[in-house]
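User: Please predict structures.

Assistant: First:
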Amino acid sequence: MGIEAIVDKIRNRVESSGFDRSVKFDTGDDGVIVIDGASISTADAPADCTFKLSLDDLDSLVSGDLSPTTAFMTGKIKVEGDMSVAMALSQII
C-alpha cells in the first residue's frame, strides 16, 4: 500500500478527530504524511512530533495489525519531539 492509500484510509478519522496538534509520519524514501489538526497532507512540513517508520509498519499500524506500544518497544517506530502528542495520537490511529 502506498502513502496516498494510507492517507485515504485515515482521512475520515483525522478530519473528525478534534486533534489539535501536528504529527509527521516519515517513511523515508516512501514519503511523509503530515497531520496538522484536522488536515492531512503528503507534503513535508514541521510537526510537534515525528514518527519514523517503514511504510509497511505504518500500514500495519493504521490497519490495527501492529500495536503502537509494541512497535515502539521493538524499535519499529522512532519518536522525535513531544511525546504527549504521540500519546494523544492514539485517538486517531
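Second:
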Amino acid sequence: MQLRYAFRLYPDAAQQAALARAFGCARVVFNDAVRAREDARKAGEPFPTAGQLSTCLITEAKRTPERAWLGEVSAVVLQQSLRDAEAAYKNFFASLKGTRKGPKLGPPRFKSRKDARQSIRFTANARWSISDAGRLSLPKIGAVKVKWSRTLPAAPTSVTVMKDAAGRYFASFVIDTDPATDAMRMPETDNTIGIDLGLTHFAVLSDGTKIDSPRFLRRAEKKLKKAQQELSRKQKGSKNRAKARLKVARAHAKVTDARREFHHQLSTRLISENQGIAVEGLSVAGLARTRLAKSVHDAGWSSFISMLKYKAERYGRTLVKIGRFEPTSQICSTCGAMDGPKPLHVREWACRACGIVHDRDHNAAINIKQAAGLAVSACGAPVRPGAIPAQREETGSHGFPTGNRAAKRHSNR
C-alpha cells in the first residue's frame, strides 16, 4: 500500500529562486505538451507519443535559444511533467469512455504561473537524498531544511515538492507500507461502532458518544471577512494587493489545517478502538446545493470518510458504507417499527409502537450499525451476517436529488 508523508520545508532565498525556476520549467514543458497534442488534434494527425514529446520538447528544446534555460533544472523534473500531461490525457479519455469512476473530467488545461499550487516531482533516478543532518538534498536546488514531525516508516520511492497558495513549501514522500505489519501495530479489539454524521454534532456513535462539531470555518469567519475586505480595497497588480492576497490565503490555510488535523485524530482514534465501523454514504454533492452548503463544506464529511477508508485498509479493519436512502432516522432501533419522516428540528421522538424515547442521532447511529450487519466472530474476525441493504458498489449507482429535494431527503433520514 502506498501512502504519502508530507513535511514542511524551509528553503532559503537562493533555494526559493531555484525552486521557482523548477516550477516554471515544469509548467512550460507541461503546456508545450498540451499545445503539441492540441495542434495535432486540430490538424487531424495522430497524437505524438511520449517519446516524441520528450525528444522534441526537452532534448532538442534545450539546444535552442528560446528554451536553453530548461537545462538549469533537473531533467527528471521535466520528464515527470511530461508524465503528468500523459496521465491527464489518459484520465480524460477514460472519463469520456465511462471507464473512469467519479465525475466527468474535461481536457487538460494550460497551467498558469498564478496557479495556487505549484509542484515538481523527483523520482529515485534523480539522485535526491536525505542527509545525516536531516536536510533534503535536491539536484540543482541544494540541501533544504525540513521540519520532521515524525519518522518515515520506510525508504521513500519519490518526493514531490509543493508550494501552496499561502507561500508554504512542503515535501511529500511516497512510502510503500506493508498492511500486515501495520495491522500488528493496532491493538486487538472486538468492538464495532456505527457513526451518524451531522451538523449539530459532527458525529454521534452508536455507543452514545457525541463528538461536537468544531466549525472551524464559522469560527474564523470574522477574521476571514476582514482580510477579504482589505484585499478588495487594494489596487489590482500592486504589491500591497499581493501581500493582502497572501494574508487571505494564510487565513484559509489555518482553517484547512485545523480541520484536517481534527479529522486525522478522530479517524485514527475510531480505527484504533474498533474492529468494524459503519457509516452512511451521504450525498455531499447534493447537500452542498442547499441552504446548508456552508455548514456541509465546513464539516468535511467526504474527507473524513476517505481517511476512515484508507486507514481501515491499512490497519486491517472493516469499514462498511450503507445506502444513503436507508431511513435510519425513521426506524425505532429497539423494536424496528417505522415511525415516518421527521423534520430536522425534531431531535427526540417517542416510538408509537413501543413508547421508547429516542435521541434522533443516537438512534440513527444504532440503525446504521445494524444495517451494516457488523458483528464479530468467536475468533475476533469481522463478519457480516445476513443481507446488507446496500453494498458498497450499490451506493454509487443511485442518482442523488439536488436543491431543495436533497435537503428534504436528508431531513427525512
